[in-house]
Amino acid sequence: MGLESMCRLVVTVTLATLLLLPRAWGIGPELSGYYQYQLTAGAIDREAYVQDYNRLRLDISAQAGERASFRGDYVYQTFNGRTALPLDELLPPAIFEQLPPDAPSTYEFENEHYLDNAFLSFYAGRFMIRVGKQQLPWGTGYAWNPTDLFNVKSLVEPTYEKRGVDAGAIEIPFHTAGSIRAVFAPHGTIEQTARLLRIGEHFGRYDISATIGQLHEERRNFLTGTTSAERRRLLGGDFAGELFGLGVWGEGAYNDWERSDDYAQLVLGVDYTLENGTYLLGEYYWSERGRLRREDYTVQEWLELLFGGRKSLARNYLFLYTSYPLTELIDLSAYGVGNLDDRSLVLIPSLSYNIAENVDLLFNLNLFSGDEASEFGSADHLGFLRVTAYF
Description:
By secondary structure, this protein is mostly beta strands. The chain is built from 4 helices and 20 strands. The protein has a single domain (32-388), classed as Beta Barrel (Porin).
């Protein structure tokens, strides 16, 4: 059986499972989802390029009485046009020159299809047990979440959907608004299985939580080409509430690594909505792991940032966001991320338009500024047009 036939078989079996499992309970599933098309235009070495992608997401959910439910999400995505970007255009020259001969030469956008979520939930009042591939969002931060062990947000689109995690979760309520949540995510041996415990309670105008967890993280050494698992322990907490009419939040964590250097992280944020509907948000991020000088960025750190597994290079960042409802159908917004240590930034203005019922259009620019050796100054400007149709 060829690779293409195998892929089709996997897709067929997965979708059939998602559709038939709810029917096994004697009920019909509810279908929803979206189709998304995005056209991106940019320039590499002063030569313009275009790339587009087609993304189909199918969401299936079913309720089995009052105490159980099922949900599954399947994603199929294809890329066309310029799907391989050379690393010498994505990395500063001084960093690219240090790459070993067998290091990747391009950043590839590959077609993919995957089961994003598929889980069963069992309820008894506020008590809940959930098993399967599920979303595990942690923390109150908007652009950064130090207490999140499973997701790394994209700074150029921090609110975009995250992938599910294979895990079991149990949530136990106490008092009127408190809860204890425990998560177990299998990985290799029992010792390597991720374990997290989160305790949260409401105090006055604030929701306050504490988190403790451990997992073994696969870490890739791009210079040697080897991969090894390293134990990571986390102790953290977060809060969200209101102060003098402002929305405020904070999140922090201390990371204890088996072999690597330990480090702390902190996020503080504030938001406010003006009478004319203008929304304002600001967030500060500090990471003890980061560098204070761009000259100290390493090849390993740059490649971790590019290929995933690392949130940032520097120590101090500022995130600013604003949006304004121009009409009932059109919103204007812009946000910027500033690296306060190497003085680089990315500015992202956007326009969203609800062109029809359940159809949204988004136009977005990514404008980069800074020295070519800085985090954001090494990137080239680009823009994209995205249309999403929900069903």
